[in-house]
Amino acid sequence: MKDASTAADLLCADWRSAVFVGRIATVAGPSPILIRDGEVYDVATAAPTVSALLAMPDPAAATGDHLGALDDLLPALKILSPVDLQCVKAAGVTFAVSAVERVIEERARGDADAAAAVRAKLEDRIGGSIRSVVPGSAEAAALKTALADEGLWSQYLEVAIGPDAEIFTKAPVLSTVGWGDDIGVRSDSSWNNPEPEIVLIVDPRGRIMGATLGNDVNLRDFEGRSALLLGKAKDNNASCSLGPFIRLFDQGFTMDDVRDAVVELTITGSDGYHLAGVSSMREISRDPEELVRQALSEHQYPDGFALMLGTLFAPTQDRDVPGRGFTHRTGDVVRISSERLGTLVNRVTTSKSAPPWTTGIARLMANLAGRGLLQPPVMQDHV
Predict the structure, then answer these.
(1) Radius of gyration for the chain, computed over Cα atoms and rounded to the nearest angstrom
(2) Where are the domains of the chain?
(3) I want to staple 217 with a disulfide (CB 3.0 to 4.6 A). Which of 63, 75, 239, 350 is the partner?
(4) What keywords tag this UniProt record (predicted)?
(5) What pLDDT digit, counting tens, does each position of 181-192 carry?
(6) Is the pTM above the cut of 0.90?
(7) How far apart are CA 306 and CA 361, in angstroms?
(8) What is the residue-wise DSSP string for 140-166?
(9) Omega within 30 of 0 (cis) for the link into 244
């Protein structure tokens, strides 16, 4: 699907002064690109993967083949997910509203019909408390004790206000989809929603290099039945989209811009349904750098990683039956946008109907080797 005719449709207002990293499909195979001053450069000869590019001391200075102006190239450009060898991680239950919704899923046992009554009870008891408490604080511990005494404690509240964040692996390496691709929801799920998020990109040394947008598709019925179904709820074919590009941090775009970001979501159904929502990163319960620190505390990522920061957005607007809330239908178009990062667009299908994931690490390495891009000096310098 094509949803952007100009770079201004795809990216942010200041895109000509920003530096972006991405991936595109070429006749020879996937190539990392740099976008500087509105011009596109194929940098595969300098760094054969985005992972290798971001491991450079100064990725924005990489050289490559000039392909032309982004505006001119865009109509024919096949944009891929902007990460390749990076592990794709996600932080869950990082906003108070989403924490309450996860507890609702758990208490309703994945039954959308029971959600409304549970939501009313929980909002009345913990809505204000959970929004004001600092995770891991003495006040959070006291709230935990009070809720446990009332029989309202939940494993989701543990990661929402306890000392340890929920950090999990969202998708296998190379399995994410990009801007314009179909995004997959399990065919046997009847209660699900998009999760629009800011995604931090971290290099092998733990440097936070920049950010992009993501959709961490959520199956509320599966995870609501049991938290042990998280893997089945989160990791399915085409169930994670990233893009359109990674915006690198520089003097004009910093971590503070991530902290101040507003993420907008619209869902347009082929049935005429329309839903809109807004998330403010100022409402996140843990600072983004703290989430990165926890992801790195006992683990290494030699190819870097992407970290989805969680979402405030938990759609409760009824789509069909009153009280059942929202769930996707095939053909929904999901648009996730943020002023400094651009717009990520995907159309919903089932994971069974989405194009199968066929390019794994072995196939990518074979392609890069066949193109002469895996010469020892390149790999020693950048990987």
Answers:
(1) 21
(2) 7-82+361-382, 87-94+168-350, 97-161
(3) 239
(4) Metal-binding
(5) 999 999 999 989
(6) no
(7) 17
(8) HHHHHHHHHHTT---HHHHHHHSSS-E
(9) yes
